[in-house]
Amino acid sequence: MALTVTADEVAGLVRLLAFDPWSLTHAERRLLRHAHGQDQQQWLPRLVRLVEPPPPGADFPAFLLAMPPFADLRDGIGKARTVTELDTATADRLQRFVDRYRDWLAG
Predict the structure, then answer these.
(1) 0.85 surpassed by pTM
(2) What is the 8-class DSSP label of residue 79?
(3) Distance CA 90, CA 23 (A)
């Protein structure tokens, strides 16, 4: 089943996400993930190298880091490719982000 998402639908979901990422329904979360496939492909491999084990799986919503609510965390990560390149505060925040959103797409 192919998902089709309009720009207006994505904009509405992003507005909700800015308010409370957990307020989105499972279907809305999946639509948002579908709309940000390229962001997912860019962020997931980096996250695997930036956090402690267990690494995030393929279903982890790494694309969230491209969203406005997580801009400060994304900026803190900058161009880092390994956890050793992060300052301690950013590494801790990123680990909490991964731990908190590990099951976000599961419903």
Answers:
(1) no
(2) T
(3) 25
